[in-house]
Amino acid sequence: MDYLVISAVSLIVAALTLFSGFGLGTLLMPAFALFFSVEMAVAATAIVHLANNIFKVILVGRGANPKIVALFAVPAAICAAFGAWLLGRVSDAEPITTYLLGARTCEITTVKLVIAVLIFIFALMELIPYLMKLSFPRKYVPLGGALSGFFGGLSGHQGALRTAFLIKCGLTKEAFIGTMVVSAVIVDISRITVYGTTFVTKHFEAMKDSSIGSLVIVGIIAAFIGSFIGKQLVKKVTMHTIQVMVGIMLMIVGIALGLGII
C-alpha cells in the first residue's frame, strides 16, 4: 500500500506542477507522513522534489531568467537553510500530549502542530479565490524568495508563494516555468544539506531498517514520468477543479496531523 500511495501521488502531482502553481511537496509530504515521522517525511519529500526539479530543469530550464533567479533564489536558499534548521529543532521537542482513539495511541507534538497549521494555510491558498490570485510587484521578488525558502525548508510548502512573487515579473510562460524550476533546485539543495546534518543523521540507523529509501526511489521514478506527461499537457489542462480538490484534501490531512491521528 505504501508503494502504491507514494508512486501514485508522485506521478499525478508531478504532472501538474509544471503549470498549476502548487508544488510536488504539497501532497507528497502528507503521503510520506502516513508512513514515517513528520520530519523524515519532509526530508524524503525534499529528495524526490530535488530529483524531479533537476529533471524539469533538463526539460524546461533553458528558459530561466538568470537575473530573476538570482534575485529570488539567493535569499530563498539562505532562508531555506534556516527553515530546515528550525524543523530539526522543533522535531526534538517532547510530545505535548497523548490520548487514546479507540485502541490507537495518538500523539500531539510541536512539529505536527506546526506542519498542520502550515498545511491548512497553504490549502486555503488553493481554495479562496482572492488568495489563489495573490501576486506581488517585481520589487518584492527578494522578499518572496526569503518567505518561500523559509517555508520550503520548514515544511516543504513553497510553490504557491513562489508563484505569487514571480507571476508579475513580466516573464514569458517558458521563462516563468524555467525560473520556477531552477529556483526550486537551489532551494532544495540548501534545505537537504541542513536536513542531512541534523535529524536525518539522528535517524540514520532507523532508516536502514525501514523502506524509506526504496520509497524515495519509487517516488523519484514516478515523479519523472509525471513531469514528462505534464510537459505534454501544459497547454491543455484547466486547474480550478483540481486546486479545489487538493485544497480540501490538504485541510483534512492538516486536521488529522494536528490531532495526532497521523
Note poorly predicted spans. Answer: none
The percent range for strand residues is under 5%
Number of strands: 2
H-E string: HHHHEEHHHHHHHHH
Shape: globular
Overall number of structural domains:
1
Task: Give a short account of the largest sheet.
Answer: 2 strands, antiparallel
- The residue fraction in helices comes out at over 70%
Report on this model:
This protein has helices at residues 2-20, 24-33, 38-60, 66-91, 110-127, 129-132, 141-155, 159-166, 173-197, 199-202, 204-208, 212-233, 240-258; strands at residues 97-101, 104-108. The chain is mostly helical and 262 residues long. The model has no long low-confidence stretch (mean pLDDT 80).
Topology:
Blueprint: H1 2-20, H2 24-33, H3 38-60, H4 66-91, E1 97-101, E2 104-108, H5 110-127, H6 129-132, H7 141-155, H8 159-166, H9 173-197, H10 199-202, H11 204-208, H12 212-233, H13 240-258
Antiparallel strand pairs: 1-2
Key attributes of the depicted protein:
262 residues; mainly alpha; single chain; 4% strand
